[in-house]
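Morning F.,

Quick status update on the modeling queue. The single chain you submitted on Monday has been processed. Sequence for confirmation:
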Amino acid sequence: MLLATVLFWIALKTLITPDLFHAVVLFMIFGLLMALTWVRLDAPDIALAEAAIGAGLTGALLLDTIGYLRRNH
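Structure tokens below.
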């Protein structure tokens, strides 16, 4: 129950934060906690994919996009 509450709180903070960098970091934390949730649900293959794609790859691409936007403004 605590994990679900923390996931909901982080998802809400990700949506309402005005700072893009902060939102991306919260999104990556959300992905890692979601991977932990999949482990708790006895689905380690989905957890591994969530950690690699949801938190790692997507987070890196979003951080690169923020860097690109800051260079061009």
